[in-house]
Specification:
With 521 residues, the protein is α+β, with helices and mostly antiparallel strands. Helix content is 36%, strand content 20%. Strands 6-7-8-9-10 form a 5-stranded antiparallel β-sheet, with no helix packed on it. Strands 5-4-15-16 form a 4-stranded antiparallel β-sheet. The chain has a two-stranded antiparallel sheet with strand order 1-2. A hairpin with a 2-residue loop joins β8 and β9. α7 crosses α11.
């Protein structure tokens, strides 16, 4: 089999990736292949109603029908909104000194680590997969990104002997100028074969030339015995004088690391938007027909048939048997069509809500939410956690290339922002937490402050907040130096200012006189 033979599992996902990418690009991409996304109705079937030789062949009836279809531009804004939540705060990156250059330039073309992280999360949400490969450029290891469509084949060693990749095929597509015409570009497909044979990592590159797949020359060297120049078509990547003992590839999926395909997070929303697109063609066409009924003439010779219709045209028939009438539809199905489209929008919103781990219908109990998420399997939070684990694993693979020990590799960390998963704390919730602390709940001020920070009450750390509190004058009726003290004195919660079980109040706390909660007598 040729090197461009795909893995059996790969072919199952190509169409889904295509749909999601086109939905994100919008109506222009959908209409480029209109007959794929809007099938030709049986009554409009005609040999010219297809794409022939890559060119659209217009047909009046189908083109008229397709013109009514409207693609809802909701997939791309939804994806961008989710990415905005994820990347509102930058992740925490911990690297050794000799690898900190990766923060500013993690790829050979100078992409910084935070942009690379955003690209990773975008691709996982879009296709459910993102691939990185470690490469050496200018005597430094970098990460090269690959899309889901690029990883076309792979083979693994049995788990009993490590379970590592023994063969990987990556497809690279580039626009290159046509040597015969510098103003014309052609798409060049190159296949990169990565193999691990006899414990040594090797690389070879193939391209189809004159109808045959051929290995390209990667380097040349002079034979010491013959003095002739020898073409080298297989390279053994070496760094710091050592060959690599594993393929430095990391495959990240929505549910974890590895070559097994997982769910595609944006696919359900894509299906809803395409369903709306198809239904809108029928709905808008029905509305048009209802407002512009079909004219039918009887008893008119072909030569006398009018060429114009409408209120501005006058028809005069000499034939006394001639008559004109309009065919109108009752329109009873139009409200059902409209309701069906609205239902698809509701389902779209529900899909987004489940992906965000929230409920679009209101409050859910914790148990109901956990059960629904367990069935759903993939959420934005799980995507972020798995993507961060993948980026961390990729960075550690670069550290392994640099000869780092296992203890040193464990110090390479990539910690994502997960605060977006926490809803904003309400004033009532904060009062309840503070009241619980005053009533004896075993919760420290530092823990309470961390909860406030996660729930977007403050962005400062605990030490900074304490320094600011120490500079503030005491509030009337209590001290401003503690979170609990401040909130307790400004909160009217029944029982919050009284010791439980009788007795004297704790030292430093006096019962308030007057107000809405007088002391017991």
């Amino acid at each position: 089999m040729p090197i461009n033979t795909p893995h059996p599992e790969y072919s199952k996902y190509v169409e889904d990736w295509r749909k999601v990418r086109d939905a994100i690009e919008g109506e222009s991409a959908i209409r480029r292949d209109i007959t794929y996304y809007l099938p030709i109705p049986p009554g409009h079937a005609n040999s010219t109603d297809v794409l022939m030789s890559g060119k659209r062949v217009a047909h009046t009836r189908y083109s008229f029908y397709a013109s009514f279809a409207e693609f809802p531009e909701i997939v791309s804004p939804t994806l961008n909104g989710i990415l905005g939540l994820i990347h509102e705060k930058k992740p925490v990156v911990e690297l050794p000194d000799d690898m900190k250059y990766l923060i500013e330039s993690v790829t050979p073309d100078g992409e910084d680590l935070h942009d690379f992280w955003e690209r990773c999360t975008r691709e996982i949400l879009t296709t459910g997969r993102f691939v990185t490969l470690g490469e050496i450029f200018d005597d430094k290891p970098y990460l090269c990104p690959y899309l889901a469509e690029s990883l076309i084949n792979w083979q693994m060693y049995p788990k009993s002997i490590g379970g590592m990749e023994r063969l990987v095929v990556l497809r690279e597509m580039k626009l290159v100028p046509d040597p015969e015409d510098p103003y014309v570009y052609k798409v060049a497909e190159i296949y990169r074969r990565l193999s691990l044979e006899n414990g040594v990592y090797t690389v070879s590159v193939y391209q189809e030339i004159d109808g045959k797949m051929q290995a390209l020359v990667l380097d040349q060297f002079e034979d010491e015995e013959t003095g002739k120049i020898v073409d080298q078509r297989e390279l053994l990547p070496v760094y710091l004088g050592r060959p690599m003992t594993r393929i430095p590839i990391t495959v990240i999926n929505a549910l974890g690391l590895g070559h097994e395909y997982g769910p595609i997070p944006m696919l359900p929303m894509t299906r809803r938007s395409l369903s709306i697109f198809r239904k809108s063609a029928d709905y808008n066409r029905s509305m048009y027909i209802k407002g512009d009924p079909q004219c039918v003439l009887f008893g008119v010779m072909a030569d006398d048939a009018p060429t114009e219709i409408g209120g501005s045209a006058i028809w005069c028939f000499e034939n006394p048997e001639g008559k004109a009438q309009y065919l109108d539809i009752d329109g009873q199905g139009i409200p059902l069509m409209r309701q069906s489209i609205n239902d698809e929008f509701d389902r779209f919103a529900d899909e987004v809500g489940m992906l965000l781990e929230g409920s679009v219908t209101g409050y859910e109990s914790g148990e109901a939410l956990r059960r629904r998420q367990a069935v759903r399997q993939v959420t934005v939070k799980s995507v972020v956690i798995n993507a961060a684990e993948g980026i961390q694993s990729a960075l550690r693979s670069l550290g392994r290339m640099k000869g780092k020990s296992e203890d040193e590799l464990k110090k390479i960390r990539f910690i994502p922002n997960l605060d977006f998963t926490e809803p904003m704390m309400t004033g009532q919730e904060l009062r309840e937490f503070v009241t619980s602390k005053r009533l004896g709940a075993p919760i420290s001020e530092r823990t309470l402050h961390e909860l406030m920070r996660r729930r977007q009450v403050t962005q400062r750390d605990y030490e900074e907040e304490r320094r600011l509190l120490d500079k503030e004058p005491p509030l009337q009726g209590g001290s401003a130096t503690t979170v609990a003290g401040t909130m307790a004195e400004t909160t009217n919660v029944p029982g919050a200012d009284r010791p439980q079980g009788g007795g004297n109040p704790p030292p430093g706390q006096e019962r308030r006189r007057g107000g809405s909660n007088p002391p017991r007598r």
